[in-house]
Design brief:
six-stranded mixed sheet, binds adenosine-5'-triphosphate, about 290 residues, binds magnesium ion, Rossmann fold, 14 strands
């Protein structure tokens, strides 16, 4: 599958651009769309899934214009939106049959898929429970199952781990990683570990524009030589904060070990360390 995004622009109101001439080519594999609140992640995802019309630009799936293919294109899609209304009185099974019907999948076709998906997202014991009684993690897994109905080739997940505890977060991340063999999976998040180890490529989005993209290790190279660990007395911290972005602080006896990101090596005693994607995120989105 090839998903091409050409010059996609969205202006909700005059003067403010939520997405600005976004261009990218997606092939099978997992992509992480990283950016702070308001970066334009949901805007991009809502346009790709045709829940929102772009101001200009186009989306092509295997070379075919998505706007022209309409239904054919939407059949390729699985979507887990950021704001989801669940039906509290539906059981999980009923919810999935309902979603399958909306996607135009017959009951007969849906039955084995639903059984398989419920098992994959580890909800077999709850298939006849009402969604209203589901915990946050169970809800997100139910919504992932819904997104995977019909074996979509383009799966769009908008902050799938929002509100989950670390255990559920890891569980959902593994589930996503397992399902991604022959698909384009795009995950929007502001939580770096959600995508750090599973994404083939990461796109950093800021104010509607890509400020960096590539394989995670490649991207980290962008801040190599800019990440340091500094050992300082506690009272020197404010001074350091003025000149560098603080990634992490740990206590070492009376002193502090501070991980900083800055263009020039700090004056205090320091050692260079290899950058992580989180460092890169801070470098682009953090503030001095
Ligand atoms: N319906 C709307 N009407 C007007 N402006 C909007 C609308 N939806 C989004 N915006 C604006 O577009 C920009 C991008 O918003 P978007 O929701 O795409 O960001 P996001 O990266 O998904 O953020 P978050 O991490 O908070 O979900 C923001 O400035 C937002 O205020
Ligand atoms: Mg969003």
């Amino acid at each position: 599958m090839l998903l091409q995004i050409n010059d996609l622009t969205k202006r909700y109101v005059k003067g403010k651009t939520a997405l600005n001439k976004f261009n990218y080519e997606f092939t099978d594999g997992i992509y992480g769309l990283l950016g702070p609140n308001g970066a334009g992640k949901s805007t991009l995802m809502n346009i790709i899934t045709q829940n929102l019309a772009p101001t200009s630009g186009e989306v092509l799936a295997d070379g075919k214009n998505a706007a022209e293919s309409g239904r054919e294109y939407r059949k390729l899609l699985g979507f887990m939106p950021q704001q989801q209304a669940l039906y509290p009185d539906f059981t999980l099974t009923r919810f999935l049959y309902y979603m399958a019907a909306l996607k135009g999948i017959s009951k007969k076709e849906a039955a084995p898929q639903i059984e398989d998906l419920i098992e994959r997202v580890n909800l077999s014991e709850h298939s006849r429970s009402k969604l209203g009684g589901f915990s946050g993690g169970m809800r997100q897994r139910a919504l992932l199952a819904q997104a995977l109905l019909g074996d979509p080739k383009i799966v769009i997940l908008d902050e799938p781990t929002a509100g989950l505890d670390p255990k559920e977060r890891i569980r959902l991340r593994n589930l996503i990683a397992e399902t991604a063999f022959d698909k384009i999976v795009i995950i929007a998040t502001h939580v770096v570990p959600d995508i750090e180890f599973i994404a083939k490529e990461v796109l950093l989005l800021k104010d509607g524009e890509i400020v960096g993209s590539g394989a995670p290790t490649e991207l980290c190279g962008g801040v190599s030589g800019k990440v340091f660990e500094v050992i300082i007395e506690q009272d020197r911290l404010p001074e350091l904060q003025k000149n560098a972005l603080i990634a992490n602080i740990t206590h070492e006896g009376e002193r502090l070990c501070v991980r900083v990101i800055c263009d020039d090596a700090p004056e205090a005693e320091h050692r260079a360390v290899s950058p992580t994607l989180e460092d890169l995120y801070l470098y682009h989105f953090g503030e001095y």
